[in-house]
Amino acid sequence: MDRNTTIGFLLLGLLLIGYMVYNQRGQKEYQAAQKARRDSIARVSQQKADAVRAKTAALDTAVQQRYDSLQRSSQLGVFAAAGTGATQTLTVENALVQITFSSLGGRPEKVILKQYKAYDGSPLDLMNSHYDQLGLLFYTAANQPVRTNNLQFRLMENTLGADSTRTIAYRLEAGDAAHYLEYRYVLHPGQYMLDFNVKMVGLENVLRPTDKTLSLIWNGQANQQEPDAKVEKNNTQIYYRLQNGEHDYFSLIRTTDKELTEPVQWVSFKQHFFNTSLVADKSFDNLDIKGKLAGDSSAYIAQADFRMQIPYTPAAEFEFPMHIYYGPNDYYILKSYHRDLEEVIPLGYGLYTFAKYINKWLLLPVFLFLGKIFGSWGITIIFLTIVIRLLISPLTYKSYLSQAKMKVLKPELDALKEKYKDDQQKFGMEQMKLFRSTGVSPLGGCLPMVLQIPIFFSLYMLFQSTIEVRQQSFLWVKDLSIYDAVLHLPFRIPLYGDHVSLLTLLMTLTSLFMAFYNKNMTGMGGAGQDNPALKYMPYIMPVFFLGFFNSMAAALTLYYLISNLITIAIQWVIQTYIIDEDKIHRQIQENKKKGPQKSKWMQRLEQAQQQKQTLTQQRKK
């Protein structure tokens, strides 16, 4: 192959390669053009489809809105316009409470107590859930039910008076401005009580003419405010006051439903240290209550539904004034409202009703007075213990004096026991004869202890209920209103719990020490010591109290620990420096020489019998 032929083939190859490259580029441009054309067609189709769907959706929405409007009109009648609209909120406050109102239902939807904190340090939301509702349920002239909680109210007034009184008014119009339902709220400075007035204007022909009452529905939820939910559930109760002045309550842990047909002045949804109460200036016709406690995994404690009837008379204007209390279970704050709301604080009830009066008239005033002096509630409890021990010191002295007399008589009692060991009946008679001849009462040491029982139960009720000790620390105790758990157990011990209270342990140890000390000091023998139940009772009771007090408020166990320490000190002083056993022995011997001593009660009984015999003889004559 010559050179020209070779060059020719090379040129042909270059031309072929160039053609192939050019053809491939054109193919790509063609495909890109085709793709652009297809995408353009798809976009146009999508836009047409979207337009069709938008028109369809708009038509469906219009149809649905028209349907909803017709349905609202048929159900709500003149209130149909309030069935729609945006919800707006308004927050008002004073130094104690912050209340947020909602236009939906024209009601409070959130309440914060500014002076208190929840157990985790967060703001104390006394009310802050979708479950909390308050409003009316009534029927229109067309026999359709209307519940105001689902309707939009219009804010008509939000004014602040010269004395810092805040007035809020929400209005639900019935077709026009001349016919309406109005909720008016007034929050006074420095008050937990919120005035709540229901007013109807021009609705006498709008509501069902046969109705004589309106239903006021209140749904409340108790949120967890304290560290131990179980303790808080045990203290969640419903209180109410009847128009006749009687008070009553029930705990949700035992009862869930109750219906009252008598007129009711107020009802309170009470937690351990806080409550929400609805108070009528006159009274509600009746009250239906349904409550329930939350499960263990729930974030709240309990829920309660209240339905009460407001007496209603059709008129051009109708008003029903009420009040809502959002606040603490503080005895004197509740008492200041002069409506017996302080009865929600369980200072004593049932078998322990007597404790209420001891607390109201003695222990609570002294406790609060000392608290103002010392500032620390732990130190206050210590000084309250000292005051109580001083008040009962005469009884304590008589008790120790009686024990000393029994100790002096022990040798003679042992001799009688040995002499009549085979005749217990004879021993008992000779023992009582010895007691009468010496002027010693075997119950002399028990009576002073029995008289202290009312104080025991009064303090039990006081420290379990008083809000002053809530979240107050002392030494290692973080909160005096609940047990001082120094150790949490991974398991639960029956009749004890799943934690260890150090105050309870110390109280138990001092109680056992007192039991051993008293046994050694009195050295009392006799028939009682042959009974194991009586012999070991002083040691069994402290062990029993170990489980009982382990879950009690630290304030209560602190009191009894200090009381035990003071008792030990007083007992040692009295028995070491005041009581003279030799003198007691001489007095007993002198009494024996005088013969059997009669008690004043026996003397009065004999005098009564002699008088009866004299009257009988006179009648026979």
Question: What can you tell me about this protein's structure?
Answer:
Residues 604-621 have a biased composition (Low complexity). Keywords: Cell membrane, Chaperone, Membrane, Protein transport, Transmembrane, Transmembrane helix, Transport. There is one protein chain. The protein has 621 residues and is an alpha+beta fold. It has two domains: 88-345, Distorted Sandwich (Beta-galactosidase, Chain A, domain 5); 355-594, no CATH class. It has 14 helices and 21 strands. It has helices at residues 3-76, 229-234, 331-335, 353-374, 377-391, 393-419, 424-438, 447-451, 453-465, 502-522, 532-549, 554-578, 581-594, 600-620, and strands at 89-93, 97-102, 107-117, 123-127, 133-139, 145-147, 154-160, 166-173, 180-187, 193-201, 213-223, 237-242, 247-251, 257-260, 264-270, 274-284, 287-293, 300-311, 317-328, 485-493, 497-501. The strands form four sheets. It has a nine-stranded antiparallel sheet, with no helix packed on it. Strands 6-5-11-18-17-14 form a six-stranded antiparallel sheet. Helix 6 (393-419) packs across helix 7 (424-438). The termini are far apart.
